[in-house]
Amino acid sequence: MTLSKKMRNIQAMEQQVDLFRCPICTAEMEMVEHSRLVCSTNHSFDLSKSGYVNLAPQAHVTKYDKSLFEARTTVMNSGFFDPVLEVITRIIHEGSKGTPVILDAGCGEGSHLADIVSRLAGKASGIGIDLAKEGIAAAAKEHPGAVWSVADLANCPFQDEKFDVILNILSPANYAEFTRLLKKGGLCVKAVPEASYLKELRAIFYEENVPKEDTDPVGRFAEHFDAVQTERVTYTFPLAEHHLAPLIRMTPLTWGASEEKIRKALQLGLPEITIDFTVMLGVKRNG
């Protein structure tokens, strides 16, 4: 019998239930009746109809809505990020042993984590968290068989030293939490945009006033991890006409743009777009 997407998500969560701790009181949790996570002091969190769990006790409103995640799915399915994901997968494969437990901190709609786990040919377990409920809902529906949870990066609902790898792709980091969650010798892999990332869109939307990025993300990363390595990944991606609108929708670069400017960009068209990332690898420090 073929399992439903919901049951595949629930089974994955049951298999990894020892990872969880209550976001309210930090007690251990267990799955009850395949339908809710309950901690030892009786805080209870129901699973959704699609098999994810909301472990962010307070409601949060983010700019990441359903239409944004639909746009992101369209762009990711085009192969837009494939070379970056290939590098990240190789780093995980070379740096971890056995079947690594991977946490994607800020997973969005789950496409990156699902792609990486798939590339590792089943030799990894994926857990994805994000504060945007719409992203986790999309992940649970589109990528069943992993653990998906709405959760706050500042208060991750997981036990200490349970993860072999933490991914942090185009997302804010919480290095104190990452250090707490990683096993001894665990890996943190972070991808940050470089100066040429989406430069064609920047030229249209910002002209001379290009927003300033974090000037030294590698330096800040190196303050928290040992054996830091970096790899630059730069390429141009041919952009089909029907991918430009979802690309504009998904990137924060355009969030403050006027409708007129967006219309101008769509009329101009872009035959290709530049992808430019630095992928950082660090090892959890001892002590």
Kindly describe this structure.
The protein is α/β, with parallel strands linked by helices and 287 residues long. The protein has a single domain (5-284), classed as Rossmann fold. It contains ten helices and eleven strands. It has helices spanning 5-15, 66-76, 82-95, 111-119, 133-142, 175-181, 199-206, 217-222, 241-250, 259-268, and strands at 29-32, 36-39, 44-46, 53-54, 101-105, 125-130, 147-150, 163-169, 182-193, 225-238, 272-284. An eight-stranded mixed sheet has the order 4-7-6-5-8-9-11-10, sandwiched between helices. Strands 1-2-3 form a three-stranded antiparallel sheet, with no helix packed on it. β6, α5 and β7 (147-150) form a beta-alpha-beta unit. The chain is globular and about 60 Å long.
Write the layout of secondary structure elements.
Blueprint (H helix, E strand, L loop, with lengths): L4 H11 L13 E4 L3 E4 L4 E3 L6 E2 L11 H11 L5 H14 L5 E5 L5 H9 L5 E6 L2 H10 L4 E4 L12 E7 L5 H7 E12 L5 H8 L10 H6 L2 E14 L2 H10 L8 H10 L3 E13 L3
Parallel strand pairs: 4-7, 5-6, 5-8, 6-7, 8-9
Antiparallel strand pairs: 1-2, 2-3, 9-11, 10-11
Helix pairs in contact: 2-9, 3-4
